[in-house]
């Protein structure tokens, strides 16, 4: 593993809150030296998603085998037989590039990373304006059935209750403001010295 030990930036939120948009914006800020942690999932690709770019798409059997072999930093069965996780090799890959790791990850996974790397991690929760707005955003995507959307909305209520466990909360009511706040939070955390 590389001598470089960077910082970890966890962005978590209910689906449709805008965390992916914020993470993409941060990745474009070259001065921040961030690299995206690609999650592994047992689900099939959606739309234009590419293996090794959006996710590492791993079939269910292989995913369970990697869990057994403790190859994940964190993992979770988000929906039945629908696993997501962060491979340990992902952190090593990014630190070898002398970059800091940024995660676009579900709430439970984000909190697990914070627990494993408490000093190196800034955990940020992205809060949507309301559950109703969340439903509108998910419907606009046109990527999932009404049942799937309702499942996500039900899960969102539970996820919103975890917001106080995060280091910072960004209220994504006006996107430009949320993007600016995200850059400032990352810059400030990068300036902090490790204890």
Question: What descriptive keywords fit this protein?
Answer:
195 residues, alpha/beta, Rossmann fold, five-stranded parallel β-sheet, four-stranded mixed β-sheet, 7 helices, 22% strand, globular
List the helices and strands and how they pair.
Layout lengths: L7 E5 L6 H9 L6 E3 L3 E2 L14 E2 L2 H9 L3 E8 L2 E6 H9 L3 E5 L2 H10 L4 E7 L3 H11 L4 H15 L7 E4 L3 H17 L4
Helix pairs in contact: 5-6
Structure description:
The protein has helices at residues 19-27, 60-68, 88-96, 107-116, 131-141, 146-160, 175-191; strands spanning 8-12, 34-36, 40-41, 56-57, 72-79, 82-87, 100-104, 121-127, 168-171. A hairpin with a 2-residue loop joins β5 and β6. The longest helix has 17 residues, at 175-191. With 195 residues, it is an alpha/beta fold. It has a single domain, classed as P-loop containing nucleotide triphosphate hydrolases (Rossmann fold, 3-Layer(aba) Sandwich). The protein is 41% helix and 22% strand. It has a 5-stranded parallel beta sheet with strand order 2-7-1-8-9, with helices on both faces. Strands 4-3-6-5 form a 4-stranded mixed beta sheet, with helices on both faces.
In a few lines, what is going on in this structure?
The chain is α/β, with parallel strands linked by helices.
The tally of beta strands, per DSSP, is 9
Terminal CA distance reads 21 Å
Whole-number tally of structural domains: 1
Helix-strand makeup class:
alpha/beta
């Amino acid at each position: 593993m590389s001598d470089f030990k960077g910082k970890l930036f966890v962005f978590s939120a209910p689906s449709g809150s805008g965390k992916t948009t914020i993470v993409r914006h941060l990745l474009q800020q070259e001065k921040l030296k961030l690299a995206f942690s690609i999650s592994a999932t047992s689900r099939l690709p959606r739309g234009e998603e590419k293996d090794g770019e959006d996710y590492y798409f791993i079939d269910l059997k292989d995913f369970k085998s990697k869990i057994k072999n403790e190859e994940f930093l964190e993992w979770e069965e988000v929906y039945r037989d629908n696993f997501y996780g962060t491979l340990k090799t992902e952190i090593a890959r990014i630190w070898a590039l002398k970059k800091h790791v940024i995660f676009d990850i579900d709430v439970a996974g984000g909190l697990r990373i914070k627990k494993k790397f408490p000093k190196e991690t800034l955990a940020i929760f992205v809060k949507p304006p309301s559950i109703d707005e969340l439903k509108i955003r998910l419907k606009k995507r046109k990527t999932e059935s009404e049942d799937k959307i309702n499942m996500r909305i039900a899960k969102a209520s539970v996820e919103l209750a975890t917001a106080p466990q995060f280091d910072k909360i960004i209220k994504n009511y006006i996107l430009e403001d949320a993007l600016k706040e995200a850059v400032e939070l990352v810059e400030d955390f990068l300036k902090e010295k490790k204890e």
